[in-house]
């Protein structure tokens, strides 16, 4: 990475967050909470440990400090292991380190202080406080463990490294290199099969190194790309080490596993705990920068030193960053400012010349080693016990492990941090006894370098809008993206409409939101519509030659949609009695007005349907009949009679005042540019536009007549309510559709037939469709069904004769210049002949007697000749031989015309009388006799 002097931008992302639960040995699991907290203290104060403490005091041998947590990152960052107490949680890049892919728990009370990943084989090697090495698969399964005695070394393990090269990728063996404090290198190879075994535990021939480092090594780092080791060791004598002088060496690994010392220098500090030390304990650390240009060291007191490495000159030079060539904090005489000393918990290289420092107060600071410039200080984010580890093969990528006690009794973050540090501020005699391992939890955070646009996008994606807006101000970025995202993720109420949308410069976006977004409340909907109308008001038709392909037309189309939505809002509130529902309103706006009307009709909401017709008369004209046909057939016609169409449209239709966009130019544009299949075609057809576009497409009288007939038949078929059918046609007639008058009469005949008092005994029923299909004579017969001698005259006068007069008798009425034509047989004559053939001569007698009175006025017969002819045919049609008296009575009541036909009729009657008399005589003597013509 090139030298950086400006600000560093990085993304902070929280990954896994897991509570740490220490697994105590089984025999101690029954301890109560109070006893459990002091379990380690009692255990570590046993006689064996006391003897070790005493031996250390006598021989000034350093005491190993238990690490509260460790972080092990694979070379490409694909795997991350979090060691907390005696538990190792393994996370993987595939799921963004969110869930463990493996968990390893050591049954003994221990902690892990060094480790390395073999990323080629997905195997983790770690060493614990007892210098036992564990080899663990990525799923948390233990492959094997190697005790300290197995590698035949009495010195503590200070390093564990892996070199993943091409040869190792082809091998099924996993190789690790173990480095002990006495300078020996041990190479081990592990097979990954279930019966894992350890191969070739060899000690290197590192005698030269041992001569140069007579005392113990305390910590080291390895840079595999450069084959460089950085080592902190004793300074050559016990006295010098006790006085705080140590040796920093850079060595290169040679082919025979020996270390070639390139350069060595002395440094001050303490990497082992001095006698009677009281204070904060930091895990010592040394690290080479990614390209090997610098080395940084951190001692146990929290002091950080940096050195520049010149490989050609084989020199290590301490970087001059303030007084004493160290990183100081609060040094007013230093021109570098805010430089750190005695307050560092951990560090890691961000790039070859930038160091990320975790401060004791929880801040993360990044400093350019070459210039001393502070590139970033995360004061707003305070971490508890932060540990840092870089991804070896990536620049600008760090992992941060935060470890803190569980929150109890509503403790604040600062109280938790303070109590945490008190746990590690102790003297060397009991510093391992006061750390309550069972009450700690950890969180894994990643820090990734980002460019200014990337960082801006990240802040927006995290919905940190205030930070994003401040960031945009700081770097001169367009705030629109942050404001748009904030709007899209807001409640989109009236307050957001007034405070967010007006600050967005992208008017097209605002307009699209006003058109495509529905506010959660009525006020929010109105606010969006008003804002959209205000924006589009600037695009009036000032120039008639506006290009049809111009974006101006898009704004004009949007204005039409806004007007349509506003009209729909008023209609929606009207049909819902002022109640607003976002979901229902959205559905209503997106629904074609015809479907909305049909839905109301099907629900029988006549009041709402009436309002819909009044608000959208032109839009509904073309579908008027379909909508009315959807009204339930059982609903009384009187309830929706005002909606039924007449022969002409209503004389006056009141609409809102037309908007300036609802003009001829816009109608022309819609006709020429917007096809009916377009998704917005319905949304832009406001009532004034439809009025100009289509006008009033009122159905013709023939269409209305056909619809009314069909609707009447459907009502009868589907509901059986003939009353509603007749009422519907009656409304139509009163609304000026006179062509339906005869149809109304047909229905009324059927209605009288079905609902007459005489029908109560017969329980007669018939559909309107069947009634219409019957010939007129069959209908006439049905009108007389069930009559008796005492009721037939009444039925004829009330139903049958009026029907016959309209269907038949009127056709035979002559004009003034024509004579009466009695040759056509009327319905009554046919019916009398039929009942006479059924020997119902009494019924015939009653009807003929009634018809003989004032023939010209009672409408039973056309003339006297028809009466006489009908009577004779009835007499001759009767086949019984006991009706001679009835026959004679019929003949005695017949009238005779005064014209030329009277003589012939009288002759026919005389012959009939003779035959009747002969029949009576023969019947008296029991001789069978039939009257014939």
**Secondary structure tally, helices:** 34
**Overall residue-averaged pLDDT value:** 80
Report the β-strand fraction as a percent range. 15-25%
Q: Got a strand count?
A: 30
Shape: elongated
Helix residue percentage: 25-40%
Taking Cα atoms only, what radius of gyration do you get, to the nearest Å?
Answer: 55 Å
Largest sheet: 4 strands, antiparallel
Query: Separation of termini?
Result: 134 Å
What structural class results from the helix and strand content?
alpha+beta
Query: How are strands sequenced across the largest beta sheet?
Result: 1-30-28-27
- Low-pLDDT stretches are 1-5, 20-61, 200-211, 322-339, 421-434, 809-821
Subcellular location: Endoplasmic reticulum
Keywords: Endoplasmic reticulum, Protein transport, Transport
Protein name: Sec39 domain-containing protein
Main location: endoplasmic reticulum
In brief:
The chain is an alpha+beta fold and 933 residues long. It is 37% helix and 20% strand. It comes from Datura stramonium (Jimsonweed).
Keywords, please?
933 residues; alpha+beta; 4-stranded antiparallel β-sheet; 34 helices; 37% helix; 20% strand; Sec39 domain-containing protein; transport; protein transport; endoplasmic reticulum
Would you kindly provide a written description of the structure presented here, covering whatever features stand out?
Residues 597-892 form the Sec39 domain. It is found in: Endoplasmic reticulum. Its main location: endoplasmic reticulum. It holds the Pfam family Sec39. Keywords: Endoplasmic reticulum, Protein transport, Transport. The protein has 933 residues and is of the alpha+beta class. It contains 34 helices and 30 strands. It has a four-stranded antiparallel sheet with strand order 1-30-28-27, covered by helices on one side. It has a four-stranded antiparallel sheet with strand order 2-3-4-5, with no helix packed on it. A hairpin with a 6-residue loop joins strand 27 (387-390) and strand 28. Helix 30 runs antiparallel to helix 32. The chain is elongated. The relative contact order is 0.05. Residues 1-5, 20-61, 200-211, 322-339, 421-434 and 809-821 have low confidence and may be disordered.
